[in-house]
Amino acid sequence: MTQSSDGKPDPTQPETEGDLSGRRERLDRELKRRSDLKTAEDAGTRNPRSDASGLSLAMRVGSEFVAAIIVGGIVGWGIDRLAGSSPWGMMVFLMLGFAAGVLNVMRSAGLMKKPGD
């Protein structure tokens, strides 16, 4: 492609095969250079500890959820044994344990304020 007086390609002239292949080679080099820069930036900024901390948070939240349900069931079973109100105490306290577990999960996820905040 011929150039105009300002150094830019002249859009009125048809492009030749040599012009197109030269532009394609320059584009390939520029894309490779940018890709290499992006890869180097990503490698430097990735924090390998973030994966472990996310897993530990998930394990903690899951165990708190299950523990709340188990504690609710045990308390309900104990009340049923003492009061002779089988299965009502266990059902009520299982539901309360489930609600407490959901509340803990929501607090850990940041969807609710913690008490005292």
TrEMBL record:
Residues 1-54 are annotated as: Disordered. It comes from Hansschlegelia zhihuaiae. Keywords: Hydrogen ion transport, Ion transport, Membrane, Transmembrane, Transmembrane helix, Transport. The lineage of its organism: Bacteria, Pseudomonadati, Pseudomonadota, Alphaproteobacteria, Hyphomicrobiales. Residues 20-44 have a biased composition (Basic and acidic residues). The keyword Ion transport applies. The chain crosses the membrane at residues 57-79, 85-106. It comes from the Bacteria. The keyword ATP-binding does not apply. Pfam families: ATPase_gene1. A possible function for this protein is to guide the assembly of the membrane sector of the ATPase enzyme complex. This is ATP synthase protein I. GO terms for cellular component: proton-transporting ATP synthase complex. GO terms for biological process: proton transmembrane transport. Belongs to the bacterial AtpI family.
